[in-house]
Specification:
841 residues; mainly alpha; 46 helices; 0% strand; globular; acetylation; nucleus
Length: 841
């Protein structure tokens, strides 16, 4: 097919007419394996005369095809792409990287990544030479292309160690001298453009990937390392160009020059925290650490403090840069040399930079007012914490008082107390609400230290009553939320006056009905601690129905696993008293689970809070089932609610929650009065999953299968559609015969055979010989004593099932003597302590 015809098909793939679009996609499927199809697609991607939308469709098709077919999934699988086409792609794709617009370059970058991971260095030895050649080019686009590709190559080895890392040494040796020269020339450019910043950013990323786990030996050369460090320090201290800086905060933090600053700080942090520790055992690394501490740790600290000082005077510093700098300062606290440099500036740093970062700010207020759901999500998102200046500020204060408390704890607490006093003295309307918020956050963050340290330990209750609990009634929403959070942090202290605990508990419960969503969420979070700490459950018992209602209302509004944790705690605390609410709880949790799963399916992020909350919902359901385990009739009522979840999630859709679902199946099959036919319909799903992908969950699957056989023995033995006995045999025999499976993987198999012999006496004679045959076969090849014991226990259970039948089969197979000799040998083995080495219970 010529290029023009291919372009027409790609254009049709963009059609708003579904029939035209479907026909075009069908045509692409038909021609995708024809010779040089990939090369033609690549030519369209780079053709400037072609419509941009067509080029984009071509790039996506090209990327997806390479991702799917470049490397066969199985060793013996047929190659879908000819070697000739592969060679043509490898020879041409690199040249086009700097030529295409960024949208297309991203797609080509993904293709190059796939090819590098599959082919470099064995099938693509010329790649490094191409990179090296283009790094020496005079034209900026060629240099950019080389850096772009080298970054992808460096990332392949970022997390590799030992032998897998061997190619890194050659990559560094061949390219880093050129990188250093390029870097050096770039930093000397007067009034550099943002494109220059993009080149420096790529160099930083290449360096980062190359040193992430281990410093290449070439960089241990003092002169070479000094050359790199001089440039990083230069970038660190030079001001970011003002010209071209976006005004919009979101665009500004992603601007090229701020990215350069971020990657520079990132690299220096990594060198300091991973390789600058004098406690490293490797002598070569210890020598590097000593050199780094002596020559650079202090210089970096000084430049970091200068950068941070811009915040103090209202200057701009991206959140991520602030966060990274504070991480470096936290690491500096433990080392005498850097702490001594830090100490003279600690007052300004702590009270004028770090503390203000802990206070409620304009961005917080804007988000609180305009999108309270997003405010809640960010507040409880672990990933957000990694980038948050506030979290880094809290960590810095915590580390300072933990490591250097003697010098700093009293000063900091005095500072907080002054804020509390000033707040109390000022009339309403003029109170420093945001400073009070920061002070309360500090008190909550230092909870562990203050609970252990006198004189603060003795004053905690008074401090809470005087300065925290009054804010439950504050006219300012964020202070009501902070009061709930701090109260939760201290719920476990010994209150000398139980009325203070009771009062705080009732305030937290009232917070569940607050008009502001973040207050309600923080109140539920705090409630968990109060429920755990509560000694008189009557305080909660009388309001339990209302509490559950408020929690479920909130779960309908937000997907947050902490809400589910609170619910779990309540269920765990009240046990069987939850029986009247069990059905309603399971129905609400099931509904919440489906909502969370729908959110997770619509969001590609692996750490999506919906997915985490979905897992929490299933855990809470298990907790409820366990708490009412002595009330079997409840399980009959609950089953219709949980059955759709179990059916849907016992296949590949449920891989993320498979373990939690199996736990629910285990409870339902063990505690129900009888196992219903609907529950039996789950057996084939579990067996199919085990055969297909779930071998890692075999131990979890064992539990419900045991329940089916031991509690539903009659149905197991008599049902023919499906035939459960045959199904079990097919599964066990396949696993036991698989030589690729480790002994640990198959341990549940002999346990299931034992379950059959123990529960089906006199009714599975026809299966006795097959099960004994595969048991003896596996016994002969296994080396681990644990599995040998389990297999021998199968023989013991077979003798229990029918001794004469079993002995006859062992003689028929010619293994009776061999088996009994091994059995006695295992029985006689003892440990040094004199205890039996095998058949432990």
């Amino acid at each position: 097919m010529d290029l023009a015809s291919l372009a027409v098909i790609l254009q049709a793939a963009l059609s708003t007419n579904p029939d035209e679009r479907k026909a075009a996609e069908h045509s692409l499927d038909q021609i995708q394996f024809t010779p040089q199809h990939l090369v033609r697609m690549l030519r369209i991607i780079v053709d400037n005369n072609c419509d941009m939308e067509v080029r984009q469709v071509a790039s996506i098709h090209f990327k997806n095809f390479i991702a799917k077919y470049w490397t066969p999934n199985e060793p013996n699988e047929q190659q879908e792409i000819s070697l000739n086409d592969k060679n043509l792609v490898r020879e041409n794709i690199l040249h086009f990287v700097p030529q295409v617009p960024i949208l297309l370059r991203v797609q080509l970058g993904e293709c190059i990544k796939t090819i590098i991971h599959a082919d470099y260095p064995e099938q693509w030895p010329s790649l490094l030479d191409w990179v090296k050649h283009n790094l020496q080019a005079q034209q900026q686009p060629q240099v950019y292309g080389a850096l772009f590709v080298l970054r992808i190559l460096a990332r392949k080895y970022e997390f590799k160690s030992d032998e897998e890392r061997i190619p890194v040494s050659r990559n560094v040796e061949e390219t880093f001298p050129h990188l250093l020269n390029i870097f050096n020339s770039l930093v000397q450019i007067v009034n550099p453009s943002v494109e220059i910043g993009d080149l420096i950013k790529l160099i930083c990323k290449i360096f980062w990937s190359s040193i992430y786990l281990e410093i290449p030996k070439q960089l241990l050369d003092q002169n070479v390392f000094d050359g790199w460090m001089a440039l990083f320090l230069n970038v660190l201290e030079r001001p970011v160009p003002l010209e071209g800086q976006p005004v919009d905060p979101e665009l500004r933090k992603s601007w090229g020059w701020w990215k350069v600053k971020k990657w520079t700080v990132h690299i220096l942090n990594r060198l300091y925290t991973r390789f600058g520790d004098l406690k490293l055992r490797n002598p070569e690394n210890r020598a590097f650490a000593q050199m780094f501490q002596k020559n650079y740790a202090g210089k970096i600290l000084e430049r970091h403090l200068i950068l941070l000082s811009s915040i103090r005077v209202g200057g701009y510093l991206p959140d991520r840069v602030t966060n990274l700098i504070l991480q470096y300062l936290s690491s500096s606290i433990t080392k005498s040399s850097t702490y001594n440099l830090l100490q003279p500036q600690l007052g300004v740093l702590l009270f004028e930079i770090v503390f203000p970062l802990m206070c409620f700010n304009n961005n917080d207020q804007k988000l609180w007012d305009e999108d309270p759901h997003e405010y809640v999500r960010k507040g409880y998102d672990i990933i957000e914490d990694l980038y948050s200046p506030r979290t880094a500020a809290m960590d810095f204060v915590s580390e300072l008082v933990r490591r250097r408390g003697k010098d700093n704890l009293h000063k900091f607490i005095q500072f907080i107390v002054e804020i509390f006093k000033r707040y109390d003295e000022v009339p309403v309307g003029y109170k420093p609400y945001r400073q009070k918020d920061g002070a309360m956050l500090a008190v909550g963050a230092l909870c562990d230290k203050l609970r252990q340290t006198e004189p603060y330990k003795s004053e905690l209750e008074r401090m809470l009553v005087q300065h925290v609990f009054p804010e439950f009634n504050s006219p300012v929403g964020h202070l009501r939320a902070k009061a709930a959070w701090v109260a939760g942090q201290y719920a476990h202290i010994n209150f000398s006056d139980s009325n203070n605990f009771r009062s705080a508990l009732h305030c937290v419960v009232s917070g569940l009905r607050d008009r502001e969503l973040p207050v309600r969420v923080d109140s539920v979070f705090a409630l968990r601690s109060f429920v755990e700490a509560c000694r008189d459950l009557n305080e909660i018992r009388s309001i339990l129905p209302q509490l559950l209602d408020e929690i479920f209302k909130l779960m309908n509004e937000v997907e947050n696993e902490d809400l589910v944790f609170t619910l779990e705690t309540i269920v765990d605390k009240f046990g069987e008293e939850m029986a009247p609410y069990a059905l309603g709880l399971c129905q609400n949790l099931a509904a919440a689970f489906w909502r969370c799963m729908n959110t997770a399916e619509n969001d590609d992020e692996a750490d999506d809070p919906g997915a985490l909350a979905a897992v929490g919902c299933l855990r809470a359901i298990s907790t409820i089932l366990e708490s009412v385990s002595r009330l079997p009739d409840l399980f009959v009522q609950i089953e219709p609610t949980l059955l759709p979840i179990m059916r849907r999630m016992l296949n590949t859709d449920g891989q993320e929650v498979f373990e939690e679902v199996l736990e629910i199946v285990s409870y339902m099959t063990f505690f129900s009065p009888t196992i219903s036919l609907d529950m039996w319909s789950l057996w084939p799903l579990m067996v199919e999953a085990l055969a297909d992908w779930a071998i890692d969950f075999f131990a979890n699957i064992l539990v419900p299968l045991d329940n089916y056989i031991s509690r539903g023995t009659a149905h197991f033995l008599t049902c023919k559609e499906p035939d459960y006995q045959q199904s079990l045999w097919n599964m066990i025999s396949t696993i036991m015969a698989d030589k690729n499976l480790e002994d640990n993987d198959i341990e549940p198999a002999p346990k299931l055979i034992q379950v059959v012999f123990q529960n089906c006496r006199g009714q599975v004679d026809r299966w006795t010989e097959p099960y004994l045959r595969i048991t003896v076969d596996r016994l002969r090849q296994t080396e681990k004593s644990r599995l040998r014991c389990l297999l021998m226990e199968v023989v013991a259970d077979a003798l229990y099932y029918n001794a004469s039948l079993t002995l006859g089969i062992l003689h028929k197979l010619g293994v009776a003597t061999e088996v009994f000799n091994l059995w006695f040998q295992l029985l006689q083995q003892v440990r040094k302590s004199g205890l039996m080495a095998n058949f432990k219970r």
